[in-house]
Request: fold
Amino acid sequence: MDKKNALRAGALAAGTTLMMLLMSSPALALTRDDGDDPGQGLSVIETLGLYVVAPIGLFVVIAALVWVLDRSKDRGDTTSSNITVKGKAAKAG
Reply:
């Protein structure tokens, strides 16, 4: 990449970052909006259950369902099952 393209990419990245920061500034406001009625906060156990245990549990359930319901039999190891090895007993004779 030459200097002109690098400068253009840097200017585009800086401009995009600046615009995103300017547009997200209302999200950092301390005053509440009309109709804003936050509920109670989550406890540590509820937070861990919701954001850690639940996704892991869903992953395990989906993986188990895929594993159990997979009916394809064509994934056998075809390379090593077709090889026959002759032992020492076959050579003597």
Observations:
- The helical segments are 3-23, 44-69, 78-81, 88-91.
- The chain has a mean pLDDT of 81.
- DSSP finds four helices and no strands in the chain.
- The longest helix spans residues 44-69.
